[in-house]
Amino acid sequence: MSIAEIEQEIIEEFELFADDWELKYEHLIELGKSLPLIDPVFKTEEYIIKGCQSKVWLHSELKDGKIIYTGDSDAIITKGMIALLVRVFSNQTPAAILNADVSFIDAIGLKEHLSPTRANGLISMIKQMKLDALAMSQKS
Amino acid sequence: MPDTLQHIAFNVEKAREDFPILKMQVNNKPLVYFDNGATAQKPKQVIDAIAKYYYEENSNIHRGVHTLSQKATTHYELARQTVQKHMNAASVNEIIFTRGTTESINLVAHCFGKLFITKGDEIIVSEMEHHSNILPWQILCEEKGAVLKVIPVNEKGELVLEEYKKLLSDKTKLVAVTHVSNTLGVINEVKEIISIAKQKNIPVLLDGAQAIPHMAIDVQDLDCDFYCFSGHKIYAPTGIGVLYAKAKWIDRFEPYQVGGGTIKTVTFGKTVYVDGPLKFEAGTPNIEGAIGLAAALNYINEIGLSAISSYEDELMQYATEKLKQLSGVKIYGDVKRKAAVISFNVNDIHPFDVGTILDKQGVAVRTGHHCTQPLMQCFNIPGTIRASFSFYNTKAEIDIFISALEKAIKMLS
Q1: Topology adopted by domain A3-139
Q2: What is this structure's pTM?
Q3: % chain B with pLDDT above 70
Q4: Residue A108 in contact with residue A10, Cβ under 8 Å?
Q5: Closest chain B residue to A118 measured between Cα atoms?
Q6: Top-level class of domain B47-302
Q7: How far does the CA of residue B386 sit from the closest CA of chain A (Å)?
Q8: What stretches of B188-340 adopt beta strand conformation (E)?
């Protein structure tokens, strides 16, 4: 599936919750719990993206021309957001990742998590995902 | 029955009417604002005073001969008097307007450091300080080759005064501690801290940012050398704050920043600076901020700080009891002498997650390290959830907060 198709799938998934914040957050928390954990060897200072409050770890590797992202956070809601971003970006080519936007986050009503309050490190994480894609696009 | 009298004297519903923002809805829920430690909401008396200044008086101060300028100058200087009276400073010349507590501390670190700190000297702070009362001293120590000494905190969140006494030496040049912990709400034994320092003739700076909205401050009774606070924590606008400094320091300090308003005469050879607080207020100051601060202090004093503090204590007691009934809640700084702040965690749930779910329910708290990372390291936690109260909060709001918290715990466990 292309990035746009996955984003559309997520938007439809979240439409089920309509304006019910509780269902939406329960889903996000579940996504956080189901996120495949980053390999512990990558859960180090080198891979940390520091938010003001919650920490995020991100690892990326190139496999058959596609980037595999794994991530983790010490906060479960942040972890749920990472699960969404990994679902959209992982297993895509560097070029596709570089061209993608994350407007689906606004569409599913979770834009506040990308606000530049430095609280959860997600904006920095997206930036890092793109930077990794850029680096790998030059390698491949 | 003094309690009953205070209840009659203080009417929370009437007080709430003064704060337009409290009628707001957040996420379609009535706002429950428990982030007063970060900044307090503003009563219409303050908002109106600022509006009135811009509608009727706006003009630059101290040098204009025209009517508006004289009016604005009078009000700016009257504001200084209001602050002086509020803190019971010996003279109006001991009140410097700054941008806030942070600038007040930086000013002292700069001016005091320049004159009195040399290699090997020691400055004492505490483990519970806000970063604003650590970094200026850390930089000063790095620049001068001085040493920063730290009063430890015990497991209850109190300063260990026995250790403080051991830290004091002939090399100690200044003690800088907070009056009330912004993270824990613990009220420090500042009178004792000051009197111990005074036995060795060591000056003391108090960070009063969290104390100022909750208790009467008498700088002469405290006998501190410096007292710093921010207007916005005591219902005044942001961007205005105060440094109280004993006259002997004001006289000896050189200007912190220089420019318009600080001088008597300027030539390219030599500049002579004015005496008193204006020496430290370079450039056009925050005039409406000072006027707003005076309006806020007048407002607070009309209600009365003793009525405010006894009502806030009642809220604290109620909230603490309710919180303790929830399983898995750990309160940090679980002591009797506290000022309107409760910091806690629930099991191993991340404070950020709790704060997010509370916000969805209209409850505003602060989560994180509260700019006190060394204190968080001392408790070995990434942060806490901090509920901080004001006299406009109610027990009914605490009930909403508790049930919102129960829901958050259920969702996040």
Answers
A1: Sufe protein. Chain: A (3.90.1010)
A2: 0.93
A3: 98
A4: yes
A5: B368
A6: alpha beta
A7: 13
A8: 204-207, 226-230, 241-245, 263-266, 271-273, 329-332
